[in-house]
Structures are given as structure tokens and as C-alpha cells.
Design goal:
Elements (H helix, E strand, L loop, with lengths): L12 H6 L14 E7 L5 E7 L1 H5 L3 E5 L29 E2 L5 E7 L2 H9 L2 E6 L25 E4 L1 H7 L2 E9 L11 E6 L5 E5 L4 H12 L6 E4 L15 H13 L3 E4 L15 E9 L5 E12 L11 H5 L6 E10 L13 H19 L3 H7 L17 H12 L11 E3 L2 E13 L5 E7 L5 E4 L9 H13 L6 E4 L20 H22 L13 E4 L2 E4 L5 E3 H7 L5 E7 L12 E12 L6 E11 L6 H21 L30 E5 L23 H13 L15
Parallel strand pairs: 1-12, 10-11, 14-15, 19-20, 26-27
Antiparallel strand pairs: 1-5, 2-4, 2-6, 3-5, 7-15, 8-13, 9-10, 9-12, 13-14, 16-17, 17-25, 18-19, 18-24, 21-22, 22-23, 25-26
Bound molecules: dioxothiomolybdenum(VI) ion.
Length: 735
């Protein structure tokens, strides 16, 4: 029986729930010291003096580092090519560009000693007035240099099509800054070897990228650096760049000539690593009276730091999702303010863009009196409007129709405020989504050992998504082994180089390399059975050999041999297969590859208090072939909950005078808890996509966080008649 497609429980589940899984800050290294970062309280200006005398004399202190005594680093170029990180490097000069910027590092025998000594450092500032982002500043946004994609696009003539349309919908949509808030704080444990090698245990979604970035900035040869991250306690994109603390830990360890552990405090997680930038978006739709789209314009502005042009490509989805007869135009601009650099946050670009696009589509449904599901079916397209290429697979119609059937959409009464349960208003909303599919190269190695078990190795990651399990399933099927006979090792740069765990790309790409490596190992074993010592299948063709249960069998005979016997007979301690997956870039391929979804939300709204409760949710997803329905369902549940946070709760507030993020903890920054979440109904309707991956899989994880917010906002409109175009949908916006 194939392991792929089975709902197998996580291979690492027992280790995680028993505490045997070690996260970065759990790792014990003999002689480790502890570092604490002291950060600036101002957001703009410079330090005039930093008095470290008292800190240096405090108990347990080994070193106090500031821009006066920290070695200079090499500048980090701003690039969308990996490795990525904030380009303003810490403790290099007296300038302050954002509140919470590192200004000193204390190294001590214990974490408390380091933190306490940090409080003894006295800093004099020359304080400048910070530039703080607010939505009206979007009017003065500027064009950044192009990053991953063109910043603006124009297909056809959107303006004329909108101007000439029978029905026009225009709206401005705003979303706040958000933070990742993983349970595991960012941490680095830096260990230098006698020979000048550096080992970094780092909470990161990209061990390879971190190695390359550290090599570049510290001027070390890449082969002297090892980066290790076996488990991640949540990443969500915040750990997909390298941040200043990782560099500081490495330099602090060099300064004291002992291992240094540096863990950010929860409050520091709001300024020393990235966040999702707010967006100010405007949408204009032009359509016929039957809801057929004629023109679409979508513009987005986001704040970024003074030094990095981070672009949140929120209008990207509008280039691809709906067929639009007359034209589509999009643009992205930025506003530079005193803050640290933003970064991707699950699901970057799409989750913000779809809130605007799919809210506007709901407005169009009401303006044309076309059912919101029917409106979307009417504007479905087989061709990507942006590239003109056919979609590889696009099961959006099935997402809409099967999702609607599961939800019971036909029982919905279309008029706003027409559904009630006693005094509670009931609302039902739908939204569709398209999600970028990434194609990245990756390598993997599969080693069969003399006991007939297999080891899979790649410098890829399981960031909590189930990769340890799905990679074992894929290797098991290719080798003809039970999945529990496969051990997977990830998150270590000494293993074959792979890509970061970002963009929901691992199942389709890094795991494809595992398939190739396992096939290579199996083929080597078959070759040995045909031509090796005492070859049991001598003279037969490779295609006549099958593998199952760790045994190779020759078709139409009763001849067979186990992997273990085969290795022993040939005097081999192991058999190694290498996988090198090198797909062409998506943009260069013949087909446009995207994942799709349609999601349905039912809310209950208290008419007096404006409290919104999610009551039911159905998500229907086309993410190609599902490798493991259990881990996939977990991804979807996590993504939906993530979207509920975006819709109803999450916002990072900035002090308008001091430019500090203010709600820097779990009590000030609200995320959904179990009590906020009803039972979630998850359907997978996609099939094998041969263009997307040899495994047939498309990106899933982040797709499931997309369009939750517009589905809920549309449900809130249906319940209340109030269109909320500013997230989160806090109760005061409904009163
Ligand atoms: Mo995801 S935000 O691309 O880690």
C-alpha cells in the first residue's frame, strides 16, 4: 500500500509532546554564556554617549559590546535573492533608525545577570522627531526599486473598461501592521571552534540562507559555518530572514571566546525581527449588469523602514485570479518611516490583497444582485490573465461548488440582516483565493543501511508542517519500505543544500528532491541485483524488478532479495542515492501554476455589542495532490485560525509620537484561542499537477490563511449590512 496519501501521524509527534524535541534555546552546550540585547528607546536620532561602566562591574558580566567596540561587519546588499536580511546592521555606528534597535549587548554567566547588567547602561540620545506611518501618508508614497516582480502591471485598458462599465465598485481597504508571534522566541546559540569554525544553532526557516548571510556579513568562508535548526516552534515568515541578533550572538561569542546563547524577549520580538507591514489598498471594479468583470484596478501602499524597500505585493492576486475582459492594472508603492524592516508573514501578499479584492467582489455581487458564488463562477478563467498562459490545474469551480454544497449555501437568504437566531444576527460569506506556487531547486540524499532502513537527509526544514512525516512517506513509496523504516534528518547545513521553508514550497520542491534521491537509491539496488555479486536477477531487465516491504522481486518468478541481504552480499555498509531537483522557474514554464480555494464563513453577531463570533467554516482547497491528508488538514486548520486572527483580532499599534510598537505581548496583541474557533470543515478537491512537481503537489500551507478575512467580512456584511473595509473587524466598527 502506498504511504503517500495516507493520514499518517507525525513522525516527530511523540518527541514534541514529551518534550524530547529540542528547540534552539533548549540546547545545552558546556560553558555556554548568555547575552542580552539593550535596545534604543527612541526611534530617530543618535546616541551621544553610552555609559557601560556600571554594567561591566555587575555580577557575572563578561563583556559589554556597543558600536564602540563591536567589530565592523561587511555591508549586506539589499536583494530579493537569498540570503535575505535587514540591511541595517547592529552596533556599527551611533545612528538610531527605529525604536527597539539594538544599541548594546551584555554577555554574562546567566541570562538574568546579562539582562540586569543591561539595565545599568546609561544612554544619552540626540533625539530626532520620528516619522510614524499613518494611512493618509499613502498619498505621498514613492516607487521603490523592483524586487521580486514588476511593481506595476497593465494588461489591456483597465481605466477605460472601468469608466465605460455599467456597474462600478470602488473602495479603499486598510489593514494594520501585524506581528508573527510564534510561541518560540527567536534564539541563537553561537559556538566557535578552535579552528575558527562557527556553529550557529538558530531559530530559522533557512539554515542555508543564514549560513550564506553570516558568511557574507562576517567575512567568513561558507564552509567554516554550520547552521542547525532541527525544530521550530512557529516561524510564519518571521524566521525566513536573518536578523541582527544572530550576528550579535556570533560576534559576542567571539568576544568572550565562549559559546553564547541569545534569546529575544517577547517584547523584543516586535522590533528586532520583522513584521507584516500595514497596507492601504484601493480597488476599482467595472462590470456588466450580470456581474461579468470588464476592468480591474488594484493599488497598494505599505510602510517600510528607512533603509530597506520591502514591498508587500498585495495587488498581485488581482493580476491572476479572475478573467477580466477589458483590462487589469496594478501598482505597489512604499512609504519610508522610522521602523525596523517588515518581512513576509503567512500568507504574504495574498492574504492582504484578497481582503480587498474579495470584499470588492462581494460588493459587486450585491450591486448586481448576483449570488456571490455564481458571480465567481461567472468570472472563472482557464487562462492566467497576466501571462496569457493556461493554468496547469485550476479546480476553483470544484472549490466553489463542493464548498458551497458542504456549507449548505443554497439555504442562505441573500438579503443582509435577513437571517437571525433570536436576537443574534447570522451572516454567511464566501471568498475565493489564488496562491503563488514556487519552484525552487533542492538536493537530498537517501542512504539505505545494512538493516534495510533508510535515512533521508536535506538542509530543508520541518517548520511544524509535517515535513518529517511526508518526506518519509515519499521515500518509503519510492524505496518499497514501510514509512516507519525511514528516518528523516533536516535543518543542518552539513546536509545536501535545499531551499528555505517559505512560500509553502517544501512539499512540492524539497520533497521532490527526496523522491529523486530515493529513486536513485532504489535504482542502484536494482542494478546490484542484476549485476552485482551473486546477482539474484542476473540477465533480467531493471523494469522487471519491483520493490515492496524492503524486498526486491523479479516479475514472473519467485526470486527475491531484501535490501539487507543485497547490501551484505555485496559487502556494502550503505547504499546512497542523490537527488537534485532543478525545476525551471515558474515564470519560464509553459503553464501558470497556482493553488486555489473557496472558503465559506458563518458568523453570529451580537447586534447591541458588535461582537462577531465565527460559527461555522468550510474551506475547499485545490493544492494539487495531497501527500498526507492528516498533516494537510492540520495545515488548513492552522491557516484558517490564522485568518480569523487577521479578520477579527490582530493589530500592532504604534505610538504616534514615539514610533514604538506598543502592544508587545500576548495580552496586548490578540490572537485567536480555542474558544474563538468552532469546528472547521476542510475539503481537498485538487488532483495531481504534473507541472507543479513530480509529486503532483502545489503549495498548501499559506493558501489556507488566504481569503478567511474577506469571507468573514462578507459574512459580517450579510449579518449586519455594514461593510467593514478596515481590519480587524473590531466591535467598535460595528456599533
Ligand atoms: Mo511564509 S510567510 O513564506 O514563511
Amino acid at each position: 500500500m502506498n504511504a503517500v496519501g495516507q493520514p499518517i501521524s507525525r513522525a516527530d509527534g511523540r518527541r514534541k509532546v514529551t518534550g524530547a524535541a529540542r528547540y534552539t534555546a533548549d540546547l545545552a552546550v558546556p560553558g555556554a554564556t548568555h547575552a542580552a540585547i539593550v535596545h534604543s528607546t527612541i526611534a530617530n536620532g543618535r546616541t551621544l554617549s553610552i555609559d557601560t561602566a556600571a554594567a561591566e562591574c555587575a555580577p557575572g558580566v563578561l563583556a559589554v559590546l556597543t558600536h564602540h567596540n563591536l567589530p565592523r561587519m561587511n555591508p549586506l546588499p539589499w536583494s530579493h535573492l537569498r540570503p535575505q536580511g535587514q540591511t541595517y546592521l547592529p552596533l556599527q555606528d551611533d545612528k538610531i533608525h527605529y525604536a527597539g534597535q539594538p544599541v548594546a549587548v551584555v554577555v554574562a554567566e546567566t541570562r538574568d545577570q546579562a539582562a540586569y547588567a543591561g539595565t545599568l547602561i546609561a544612554i544619552d540620545y540626540d533625539i530626532g522627531r520620528p516619522v510614524v506611518f499613518s494611512p493618509p501618508m499613502a498619498r505621498d508614497a514613492v516607487d521603490p526599486p523592483q524586487r521580486m516582480w514588476p511593481l506595476s502591471s497593465s494588461i489591456g485598458d483597465a481605466e477605460t473598461a472601468i469608466a465605460d462599465a455599467a456597474i462600478r465598485i470602488e473602495g479603499a481597504y486598510t489593514m494594520p501592521d501585524r506581528h508573527h508571534n510564534p510561541m518560540e522566541p527567536h534564539a541563537t546559540l553561537a559556538v566557535w571552534g578552535e579552528d575558527g569554525t562557527l556553529t550557529l544553532y538558530d531559530s530559522t526557516q533557512m539554515v542555508v540562507g543564514t549560513k550564506k548571510l553570516v558568511a557574507l556579513v562576517l567575512g567568513l568562508a561558507e564552509h567554516k559555518i554550520t547552521v542547525i535548526c532541527e525544530f521550530l516552534g512557529g516561524g510564519f515568515g518571521g524566521k525566513s530572514w536573518s536578523w541582527p541578533h544572530t550576528l550579535l550572538a556570533a560576534l559576542a561569542a567571539q568576544a568572550v571566546n565562549r559559546p553564547v546563547r541569545l534569546q529575544l524577549t517577547r517584547a523584543q520580538m516586535y522590533s528586532m525581527v520583522g513584521h507584516q507591514a500595514a497596507t492601504v489598498q484601493s480597488i476599482a471594479l467595472g462590470a456588466g449588469r450580470d456581474g461579468t468583470l470588464a476592468g480591474l484596478r488594484h493599488d497598494s501602499v505599505n510602510p517600510t523602514s528607512l533603509f530597506d524597500d520591502y514591498v508587500e505585493y498585495a495587488a498581485m492576486a488581482s493580476r491572476h485570479l479572475w478573467g477580466v475582459s477589458g483590462g487589469i492594472a496594478t501598482s505597489h508603492k512604499v512609504v519610508h518611516v522610522n521602523r525596523n524592516s517588515p518581512v513576509v508573514l503567512r500568507a504574504p501578499m495574498e492574504a492582504q490583497g484578497h481582503f480587498a479584492l474579495e470584499s470588492a467582489m462581494d460588493e459587486l455581487a450585491y450591486a448586481t444582485s448576483v449570488d456571490p458564488v455564481a458571480l465567481r463562477l461567472r468570472n472563472d478563467t482557464d487562462t492566467d490573465p497576466y501571462s496569457g498562459r493556461p493554468f496547469s490545474t485550476r479546480a476553483l469551480r470544484q472549490c466553489l461548488t463542493e464548498g458551497a454544497a458542504h456549507f449548505g449555501w443554497d439555504k442562505r437568504s441573500p438579503k443582509p440582516r435577513s437571517m437571525r437566531d433570536g436576537r443574534t444576527l447570522i451572516g454567511q460569506g464566501v471568498a475565493a483565493a489564488i496562491f503563488t506556487h514556487w519552484r525552487w531547486p533542492g538536493k537530498a540524499r537517501v542512504t539505505l543501511d545494512p538493516t534495510g532502513t533508510a535515512l533521508v537527509e536535506a538542509a530543508a526544514h520541518d517548520i511544524g508542517t509535517g515535513t518529517y512525516t511526508t518526506m518519509a512517506q515519499v521515500a518509503a513509496d519510492a524505496l518499497g519500505l514501510a514509512p516507519d523504516k525511514v528516518v528523516v534528518r533536516l535543518g543542518d547545513t552539513r546536509l545536501p543544500e535545499s531551499h528555505p521553508a517559505i512560500g509553502s514550497s517544501t512539499a512540492a520542491n524539497a520533497t521532490a528532491a527526496v523522491l529523486l534521491a530515493a529513486q536513485a537509491a532504489r535504482d542502484k539496488a536494482i542494478a546490484l541485483a542484476l549485476t552485482g555479486r551473486d546477482a539474484p536477477f542476473a540477465g533480467a531487465a531493471p523494469g522487471d524488478v519491483t520493490v515492496a516491504d524492503g524486498t526486491l522481486s523479479l516479475a514472473r518468478t519467485n526470486r527475491n532479495i531484501t535490501y539487507a541481504e543485497l547490501l551484505a552480499r555485496n559487502g556494502l555498509g550503505s547504499l546512497v542515492g542523490d537527488g537534485d531537483y532543478a525545476p525551471v522557474e515558474e515564470a519560464a514554464g509553459p503553464k501558470a501554476i497556482f493553488s486555489f480555494s473557496a472558503v465559506f464563513a458563518e458568523v453570529r453577531v451580537d447586534p447591541d455589542l458588535g461582537i462577531v463570533r465565527l460559527n461555522r467554516f468550510v474551506g475547499a482547497y485545490d493544492a494539487g495532490r495531497i501527500l498526507n491528508p492528516k498533516t494537510a488538514r492540520s495545515q488548513a486548520i492552522g491557516g484558517i485560525i490564522w485568518g480569523v486572527g487577521q479578520a477579527l483580532l490582530e493589530q500592532s499599534e504604534t505610538d504616534p509620537a514615539l514610533a514604538r510598537f506598543m502592544n508587545r505581548n500576548y495580552s496586548g496583541y490578540l490572537v485567536p484561542t480555542n474558544a474563538d474557533i468552532p469546528a472547521l470543515d476542510v475539503l481537498f478537491v485538487g488532483g495531481f499537477d504534473e507541472e507543479a512537481s513530480p509529486l503532483g503537489a502545489k503549495g498548501l500551507g499559506e493558501l489556507t490563511a488566504v481569503s478567511v478575512a474577506p469571507a468573514i467580512a462578507n459574512a459580517v456584511y450579510h449579518a449586519t449590512g455594514k461593510r467593514v473595509r478596515d481590519l480587524p473587524i473590531a466591535m467598535e466598527k460595528l456599533l
